[in-house]
Every structure is written in structure tokens, then in C-alpha cells.
Amino acid sequence: MRETLCLLTALLSLAAALLALLRARRQRRRIDALIDQAISGGFTGETFDESALSALEGKLSRFLSGCAAANRDLSRERERMAGLISDISHQTKTPAANILLYASLLEESLTGQRQEQAAAIRRQAEKLTFLLDTLMKGSRLEAGMITLHPEHRPLTPLLTETAAQVSAAAERRSVAVTLRPTGASACFDSRWTAEALYNIVDNAVKYTPAGGRVTLSVTAGELFCRIDVSDTGPGIPEAERPLVFQRFYRGTDCREVEGSGLGLYLAREIVQAEGGYVKVSCPAGGGSVFSMYLPS
Hints:
By secondary structure, the chain is of the alpha+beta class. It has helices at about 1-40, 55-110, 110-140, 155-170, 190-205, 265-275, and strands spanning about 150-155, 175-180, 185-190, 215-220, 225-230, 275-280, 290-295.
């Protein structure tokens, strides 16, 4: 009789342990499902019966519901902002083009100081057109309104084209642009990545003093292919490095250099849309290195 009671007690204890284990696994699966849906962006509070969940699971459900609502609001706000910038760009494109046209005609027909004044109007009209175009591209990329088409292709044509584009500006500033040969390939959209790389290289040329150099090199990796744009300029203070990719940001020591603060911002948006990223570092010997990471 005693042995039977002992056996029955052991079986009941084992059953209780198994039941607790099953319940723990069941709740863990529910929480894992909540987290998976939150990560994928498909969470809805109606999917779960809160009365059947633990207190922790209920709190997590409410937290994720709030996050999902905040993300939806943020997406709608971005879409509204992108639409606003697109409308502004569309409405101002024709007037800006007309100002540029008439300023160019005036510059050709005038002489002396008046010609210089017409040239100043033309330069400002060109800057306005560039600002509107860049803002529209950046806002559309942020809102996911532009679809990129990355393909696996060699990097040499991209680097060669970029070096050729900046050659005239580099020559005017007496800056040497060097391209190190590479046989590496990466996955990228040729048109948009060319614009991103041009913005980075053009920025390096602008901030490199006469007699300096800008070097383009490639390092191939298993996951990413890194394009380095190094210069012999003044470098970037450590406190400003996290800010250089923000829209309209200009370094405190570089205000005299002509620019809009949009080139690096647009380059980052393009590369991130391709699944890559951009970062900046400053070697101990001076200068800056902007590294563009593209999926291999």
C-alpha cells in the first residue's frame, strides 16, 4: 500500500512538472509570436486573447500595440512631408528654371559689373535648383517612394566615372584624384550609387586644400564591399562626426566652403536603401576617410 502511494505521488509530481513545462512552453511560444509579429510590423492586438495570457504577456501586448500605432503615425507623417516637398519642388521648378535661363541670357549680353551681378544671380538659381532636386530625392527615399534596383556588377566603371566627373573641379582646386585599381564587385543600383559616390568624392575635393589629394580604393569582404574615399583635408572633429550625414549640417570650421549640407545626407539615404551604410573616420595622421559599404 505504501509503495502504491509513493508511486502515485511520484506520478502526480511528474504530471505536475510536465504540465508546468507545457504551460511555460505555451506562454513562451505566445510571447515569441508577439515579438516576431512586432519585428515584422504585422502585430495586431486582436490576434491574442489577453485573458489567457500572463501579466507580462499582457503588458508586452499593450506596449507593442503602442509601438505599432506610433510607427503608423510616423509613416503617415513621412508620407505627408514627402508629398509636401514634392509639391513645392514641382511648383517651383519652372520659376527656378526661368530665372536660370534669363540670368544666363543677361550674363551673355552685359559687360563689366552688371555681368558679374547677372552671374551671381545665375549661380544662386543653380544652387536653388540643386537644393530643390536634392530635397525631393531625399524625401522620396525616406518615404520609400523610390525603388532602387541593385544588381551584382563590377565596381571599376562606377569609380572611373566618378573620378572623371570630379576631375574638372579637382583641377581647379589643384587637388589630385587617385583611383586604385580593383577587380571587386558588389550589389548596387548603378545610377543612384553613382550619385551617392559622387557626392562623397565631391565633398572630399571641396574640403581638401590645394596641393592635396583624394584617393578612391576598394576592400572586398564576405558580406560587404567597402569603398574608401580618403582625403588630406583638415579632418572632422570627433564631436561632429555623428552629425555630418544630417540634412543641412555644415561643420563649424568649414562655413567658408560653398555647399548646402545635403550631399552626404543624400548619399547615406541612397546607400541605406540598398542595404548598405556609410561611415566616416579620421586617421591619426590627418584627413578624413568616408567609407561606403555595399552588399557583396
